[in-house]
Every structure is written in structure tokens, then in C-alpha cells.
Amino acid sequence: MWDRNQMAARAALELQDGWYVNLGIGIPTLVSNYIPEGVEVTLQSENGMLGMGPFPIEGEEDPDLINAGKQTITELPQTAYFDSAQSFGMIRGGKIAMAILGAMEVAENGDLANWMIPGKLVKGMGGAMDLVAGVGRVVVVMDHTNKHGESKVLKECTLPLTGKAVVDRIISNLGVLDVVEGGLKIVELADGVTEEEMRAATQATLV
Amino acid sequence: MKKVYGSAAEALDGLLFDGMFIASGGFGLCGLPELLLQAIKDAGTKDLTFASNNAGVDDFGIGILLQTKQVKKMISSYVGENAEFMRQYLSGELELEFNPQGTLAERLRSGGCGIPGFFTKTGVGTVIADGKEHKDFPTGPNGEDETYILETGLFADLAVVKAWKADATGNLVFRKTARNFNPPAAMSGKICVVEVEEIVPTGSLDPDHIHLPGIYVHRIIQGDHEKRIEQRTVRSA
């Protein structure tokens, strides 16, 4: 089984040289620690920045420089700033090659739910719906099961959707699955995980 | 025409009325028109509808107008981090219209560009699409149809905006990610009032480096900003 960092490292292998990508909050943020040697990617922050740098060193925090999670960050030599309308113009316009996002549930047809649980406090979808509708490729990184041991990889999502048939690939602690015709296909198993274990933890159809 | 005013209260004089619709810039607490929001609180204007990506925190940004119950409705994409907001929403005192972030930004921009509606793929197949007009366009990779929904432009009575620098004619320069929703909010307003950290002599801004031209800006004030940080994150040196 992969831990958070191993999942992030595996997700980093999805990055291709020259790509502009958007990383969601949580495990996806860790992906930036594992960008392979020789691969140059530019990170987009949907609040209006391309070329997102690491957290600042203490004392250099700038209230005018934050990421989409409202954390203080830094700029890089290639950084460019723009307004929110242009930011989502490049997202909606298909200029961002890939988004790596977390999820509460993914269905075998690529439906994604990651923004609300009915009856619980609803904080809002932020930019997630725009990202999954607009970027070239959507990769989900998440634990395969919830804290009750129930599968998060389902035949159909039970939670309100963020996007319909939008997910291309799932990277979980158990391995890598692709959304294909008729269901999900096992691309890779995590270290020490058997196909039986993957099947047992997956409610969706595996083809 | 004089655009520079002495204080936030002066700059808003004669512009506020109960039940009005205000577009506000800012993302989280970054690039917030904090002085203008404080002046709206002091003016006591009620039943306000705000288009703003977030609702501030309890004691900063739009949060201060929630405490005084001056807000009737929020149009936002993300309202976490605000306990008073949640309390008023769950008790039915406050209306909330969730918009995907990019849809909200484009609704503001479109309104300011005289575009009353546009089609987007964002939200198709989700609750956001419920009750909205659907239309197919042949935009797929091989010319196949894809489904879009109709979203409407926002035409605000007033825009309140924070910029870094302005000249006396209202040409604006923003700083880093504090630009965010400020330009689209400014464009959406029939009247736009801007607070800046510095008003510089007209002619000192490079005309090629102006982010929003003064045509969108009606009144300007200069003031001291708290510029609060929401999530201070650092790495070891």
C-alpha cells in the first residue's frame, strides 16, 4: 500500500515536460515535491497565478501572495499574475493540461463528487467544477476507502456531483485505475497489494 | 472630473441604498476592499446582496457586515472559515447562491462587458445546472456535440475594489495575487469605488503596465490597509 507521499510521488509521474497543471489542496499539493528530474511544469493557482513557488521562509510572507488554499507562497522567475476571470478563462478554455484533485467519491463512468455532503456544513465548490469541466485531463488522488472501510470507487456516486464523466485516472493507496469503456481498468497495483485486494476494495466494475 | 476622495465614507456618499447589489473584489482575505466594507458597515445600509468569492472571516471583510445583519444574500463560490455566516445561513436569515468560482468571475466580467448571458460547460450534470437552459455546441475534439448551460451576467449597482496604486484618473495597478476578483468586480459595477495603498501622480504609471484603465473607476481613496494573512505557511530556511 502507498502512503500519502508515495501516492503523490506516483501522481508526479503523470506530469509531462512543458505542461501547465493545477494541483488541488491536500495530497495533490504534495505532488510538487516529486516532480521528476528534467520535467518542467508550471503550476497554476486559480486565484490568479502561473508559476507558483514554495512556501516563503519565515519573515518573507506577503499578504498579497497566496495560493488557492489561502496559504502564503512565493513567486518564481517565470511567474505571471492575472485576474480571476482570465484565470478561469485559461481553465475553461482547455489551456491547463491537467488537474490533480482529491475526491470523496469517483464512479466507474468518471463522475466525481468532492464538494459537499448533504446534511453537513457546506463550504462551496470553489473552483473545482470549473477545473474538472475545463482542463485536458483530470487525475484523482485519494484513499481507496473511507474511514469506515467502505469503497470510494463506486458504480455510481451517492454524493452531489462536482462533474459528470470527468475523471480520467484514479491514483489511490491501492494502485492506479483508468476510466475506460464499461468501467475501470487496473493500470498498476501499489507495492504489496494483490489484485484480489484491489477488487475487494472497489465497488465499481473492473474490466 | 474629480475622482479622488478624502475617506471611504466620503467616497460612498450618495451611492448607498437599502436592498442594493454590490460586487466586491478579493479572494479570501487577499485584496479585500477592507476600508470600503468598514464604511458600508458604518453607514448601516441594509438588505445588501453581495457578489463576492468569499464571505471574509467573522471579524474581517464581509464578515463584519454579517455581524450587523446588513447582508440579505451572498453570491459566492466558497464560504468556509466564517462561523457567523454558517449560523445565519442554517437559520434561514441569509440567502446563499453558490456559483462555481470561474462562473462567478465570468458573470462579473460579462456584466461589465454588456453580455447578459454566456454558455459554459462548468456545472453540467450537477445541481448547478438545475433549471438552467441547456444547449449543445459542436465543440468536441472531433466536432461532436457537447452540452453547455446558460449563465447570466451580473450587473452590480456598486463595485467595491482594492488596488495597489492608482493615478488621479483612476488607472489601476494591482499587486501579485491581490488582483484576483478585483478587475471583474470593478467592471460589473455601474459605479466603482476603489481603495488603494498609494495614489501616484498622473503620468507616473507606465501606460503599458496599467491593469485596469480609469474608465471603470469613478471614485478613489487612499488609505492604510491591515492586509491580514489567512493561512501563514512557511518553510525552513
TrEMBL record, chain A:
Instruction: Tell me the Pfam families matching this sequence.
Output: CoA_trans
Query: Which InterPro entries does the record cross-reference, listed alphabetically?
Result: 3-oxoacid_CoA-transf_B, CoA_trans_fam_I, NagB/RpiA_transferase-like
Gene3D superfamilies linked = Glutaconate Coenzyme A-transferase
Segments passing through the bilayer: none
SUPFAM superfamilies of this UniProt entry? NagB/RpiA/CoA transferase-like
> Which region is the signal sequence?
none
Which keywords accompany this UniProt record? Transferase
Gene Ontology molecular functions? CoA-transferase activity
PANTHER family per UniProt: KETOACID-COENZYME A TRANSFERASE, SUCCINYL-COA:3-KETOACID COENZYME A TRANSFERASE SUBUNIT B-RELATED
Which family does the similarity line name? Belongs to the 3-oxoacid CoA-transferase subunit B family.
Query: What is the protein name given in its UniProt record?
Result: 3-oxoacid CoA-transferase subunit B
UniProtKB/TrEMBL annotation, chain B:
The cross-references to InterPro entries, in alphabetical order and at most eight, read: 3-oxoacid_CoA-transf_A, CoA_trans_fam_I, NagB/RpiA_transferase-like
The source's domain of life comes to Bacteria
Coiled-coil features, chain-numbered ranges: none
The question of whether Transferase is a record keyword is answered with: yes
Single GO molecular function: CoA-transferase activity
Statement: the UniProt record of this protein carries the keyword Transferase = yes
Keywords on this record? Transferase
Q: Which NCBIfam families match?
A: pcaI_scoA_fam
Full protein name: 3-oxoacid CoA-transferase subunit A
| Species of the source | Lentibacter algarum
Q: What is the lineage of its organism?
A: Bacteria, Pseudomonadati, Pseudomonadota, Alphaproteobacteria, Rhodobacterales
